[in-house]
Amino acid sequence: MARLRVASLAAPAVAIAAVAGGCGSGNEQVGAAELKQKADAICREEQGRFERIQAHPPPNASIAADQTKELIGVSEAASSDLRDLEPPESLGDAYDAYLEARDRVVDQMKRGREAAEQRDAAGYAAAQTAVAKSAAERRRLAAALGLHLCGENPRSG
User: Fold this and answer.
1) How far out from the chain centre does Cα 59 lie?
2) How many Å apart are CA 107 and CA 102, to the nearest integer?
3) CA separation, residue 116 to residues 63, 120, 123, 132, 157 (Å)
4) pLDDT at residue 5 greater than cutoff 90
5) DSSP string for residues in 6-65
6) N or C: which end of the chain has fewer CB within 10 A?
7) Cα–Cα distance measured from residue 150 to residue 157, given in angstroms and rounded to the nearest whole number
8) What are the φ and ψ backbone dihedral angles of 24, each rounded to 5 degrees?
9) How does pLDDT run across 131-153, given as a tens digit for each residue?
10) Domain residues of the chain, as ranges?
């Protein structure tokens, strides 16, 4: 198992801040304009929380794992709030695809957290690479819905 170095954790902790998860009831029917407004507000809050959590690079693997756990919680909470928004039928499939992309990111973040806990630098880096590679897809899916903030930051949403 590769030894996890502090330097290898700083940038990855920033990169791993992607997004997803949660189970909501889809109980708030919204129109297209309201979906854009409410979803972007959720993503704005999520991005702010990511920035606060990542204000300082983690000095070691243990703190990187803790930081990643916090980011996962933020992502899951945001995704739950997003799932509570029920888009118009015409946007349903596109919205589901966006939420599924967020779910995949949270899965990668969880793999990264587990790797950090095990001091597995290669596993941690692989999870971060997967998150970074999926940013363009999330950005494209968000843009197709007319979401601006949800797709603008590769570290979240």
Assistant:
1) 22
2) 9
3) 9, 6, 8, 17, 22
4) no
5) HHHHHHHHHHT-----------EE--HHHHHHHHHHHHHHHHHHHHHHTSS--SSHHHHH
6) N
7) 5
8) -115, 175
9) 999 999 999 999 999 999 997 76
10) 6-20+29-152
